[in-house]
Amino acid sequence: MLSPQIFTRINPRLVFSQWGRLRHFATGAPTTEVRSAIVTGSSRGIGKAIALRLARDGFDICVNDVEQNAEGVNSVVKEIQSLGRSSIAFCGDVSSMASVQEMIKASVSELGPLNVMVANAGIAKVSWPMEITEADMRELFEVNVYGMINSNIAAAQQFIKQGTKGKILNAASGTSFRADVMLPAYSATKTAVRSLTQSFAIELGKHGITVNGYAPGIVQSAMWDHIDAELGRVNGLPKGENFKSHTKNIALGRTSIPEDTAKLVSFLAGSDSSYITGQTILVDGGLVFN
Ligand code: NAD
């Protein structure tokens, strides 16, 4: 298990009050409600765009990723702080429940009560269905499914302990609506995420906790760079061509950027979505219709 590392810097315009909660202080303006969110796998790509968008929405953010991406994590923390919000880094593996619990403890201690958990961390592996290896299958389920389950359970326990409503958001995928032949195990994990999102929503509704999924389509990120390269190995298409080849099937005529997904997550993390739960919403420019 990767040992968690916490790097904290408190914005000078903010001070602690009871609960370790940070509040705007220096301006003399009325006290503003401060909300905090954890975004897993947010050193880059979609998670980074979500972390920055939620910071702009007024959230203080705990940025998480695996220790190998600590540099990216610290850079996102600095970018959030430059927006005038508080942020901490927590490097740890979401497939370990102990690590997720440690992350929530650190976030609550530094940023105050938790309001939103974005279970975004994920990995992808390319293969024909008949060639899936047991090791790949296990690794995909460890990160994409157990990581999501750990984040959902630990966040819900924290919301219940706080006696506050909370929002949980899970990274599903277009492949949770229509499986991809070259991403069979990945598609299975994302279908599990969509199903578990519904089950958690049913159980947690009585606590006022909402649980929803966001399902991106074809997003330019390190994950798709990897998928594109692996597909190129199979079909011989040059770098970037497998990614681009999807454009013709997208109604809006372009592939996606991480900020497209961040806009949906911003809505799902905010109060305007308070009567939505158990849903997994596609944000794919019109690729899969459901
Ligand atoms: P990415 O690879 O750029 O980012 C994923 C991040 O998760 C990485 O920084 C990675 O280090 C981190 N991560 C992996 N395992 C982890 C672990 N055990 N603990 C903590 N962090 C871990 O990919 P992305 O495209 O930004 O994808 C983000 C999410 O969106 C993923 O869940 C992915 O499956 C989903 N998604 C992506 C696309 C796409 O087209 N890129 C489409 C649909 C869904």
Characterise the protein shown here.
The protein has 290 residues and is α/β, with parallel strands linked by helices. 41% of the residues lie in helices and 17% in strands. It has a single domain, classed as Rossmann fold (3-Layer(aba) Sandwich). The strands form 2 sheets. The protein has an 8-stranded mixed sheet, with helices on both faces. The chain has a two-stranded antiparallel sheet with strand order 2-3. Helix 2 links the parallel strand 5 and strand 6. It is globular and about 55 Å long. The N terminus is likely disordered. Bound molecules: nicotinamide-adenine-dinucleotide. Nicotinamide-adenine-dinucleotide binds next to helix 1, strand 5, helix 4 and helix 6.
- The CATH architecture assignment turns out to be 3-Layer(aba) Sandwich
Q: Which strands sit side by side, in order, in the main sheet? A: 1-6-5-4-7-8-9-10
Provide the succession of SSEs.
Answer: EEEEHEHEHEHEHEHHHE
Number of strands: 10
Number of helices: 8
- Radius of gyration, in Å, reads 19 Å
Mean pLDDT: 91
